[in-house]
Amino acid sequence: MTNADIARVMREIAVFLDMEGVPFKPRAYEKAAYAIEAVDEPLTAVFERGGIKAVGELPGVGKSIAEKIVTLIETGKLPYHEELRKKTPVDIQGLTAIEGLGPKNIKVLYQELGVRNVDDLERAASAGKIRTLPHFGEKSEQKILKGIGFLKQRSGRFPLGAVLPLMTIIETRLKELTGVKQVAIAGSIRRRKETVGDGDVLVVAAKPDRVMDFFVGMPEVIHVHGKGPTKSSVKLNTGMDVDLRVVPGESWGAALNYFTGSKDHNVALRRIAIEKKLKLNEYGIFRNEKWVAG
Fold it and tell me: Could you tell me if 175 and 82 lie in one domain?
């Protein structure tokens, strides 16, 4: 599991405990989640290097939470987290993304209206059912509908901080493959946009087939959109699509420029090239079809 995965579980535990009115513990799990996100190396590497003791020495992580982190690292699951989720089977990530919805409100919505996810929430709010609940009212209902609208506007995009750790891990894995000469993350992740729609990775490799086989077979891959000799596209278990392209070494600079973007930037650069009687694309710079640089 990535650090982001582990932090998400810690944060969900905090919300579930808050729902039950448990004192102090929610803050401990929240603190641990922030600490985990701040670690600049994978917790799997921390554990491999120093065991549970090294995990427990991280700021904000005590013995009990360290044990749970190790369970997640070793099994990918945490029984304690699953037990809490069975008591209140709601989509914590989705519902807490709505402005103004805290743990106590989510619990009331589940108990009174059976709200488990954002779709349930929208149906209840649109039907005017939320305003009838204690401590909600019409203004709260309208605020919830507005929050759902904002969520839909940014759906399909992912915060940079949520995707960068896993993309860095994928980059490192690819670099370690035999025959791989160069690897780089491209696209909006490379441009460090606040939110990104998908991931792009470029590779120069002696044996592209081996790289493609490895890429589509990664444990995070839940669906393969397509696999070819120079490009493969997959969906990760985070919901994000990632494209891998193997490019010729002589085109590395041009490809990195082209696939980093943005689209408007590329259009502007091509316009400059045309003014100089050149052609610019992902393979290089050309003058009268003759390759000049790349």
Answer: no
E strands, 198-267, in order: 198-205, 221-227, 231-236, 241-246
Query: C-alpha dihedral over 213, 215, 221, 227, to 10 degrees?
Result: -60
Coil/strand/helix, residue 8: helix
Q: Which two tokens stand for residue 33?
A: 């989640």
Cα–Cα distances in angstroms (integers) from residue 70 to residues 42, 47, 246, 292, in the given order: 12, 7, 36, 53
Residues 20 and 149 reside in one and the same domain? yes
C-beta of residue 168 within 8 angstroms of C-beta of residue 176: no
The SS3 call for residue 159 is strand
Is the distance from CB of 32 to CB of 71 less than 8 angstroms?
no
pTM of the prediction?
A: 0.60
CATH number of the domain residue 138 falls in: 1.10.150.110
Q: Which residue has the tokens 């995965």?
A: 5
Number of domains in the chain: 2
Domain housing 60: 3-153
Q: Which two tokens stand for residue 222?
A: 């839940």
Torsion of CA 20, 22, 27, 32, to 10 degrees: -80
What pLDDT digit, counting tens, does each position of 46-102 carry?
999 999 999 999 988 989 999 999 999 999 899 999 999 999 999 998 898 887 788
Vertex 9, ends 107 and 191: CA angle to 5°? 115
Q: What is the DSSP letter of 157?
A: -
Residue 130 has phi, psi (to 5 degrees) of -70, -35
CA pair distance 212, 207, nearest whole angstrom? 9
Segment 24-40, tens digit of pLDDT = 999 999 999 988 888 87
The DSSP 8-state label assigned to residue 195 in this structure reads: E
The 3-state DSSP composition of the chain as helix, strand, coil percent (nearest 5) reads 55, 15, 25
Residue that is written with structure tokens 């050309």 in the block: 286
The first and second tokens of residue 181, run together, are 């000469």
